[in-house]
Amino acid sequence: MSNDPASKLLLSAREAAPALSISQRTLWSLTQPRGPIPSIRLGARVLYPVDALQKWIDAQTGETEGRADA
Prior knowledge:
Elements: E1 10-11, H1 13-19, H2 24-30, E2 40-42, E3 45-49, H3 50-61
Antiparallel strand pairs: 1-3, 2-3
Helix pairs in contact: 1-2
């Protein structure tokens, strides 16, 4: 697997925030359990599954599951 962020399954906060066009501080405030953005914890690291972020974005924009690239 490549180190290219576009091919990763999990993103760090440093990678996820710009991918969502928000600051890391905003991302932290919106991360579960405080907010709606899904994340997983691996040891001390908080990581964001790319597919869960896409589903969250789709839910925010009202898109259905009929995505062509899903």
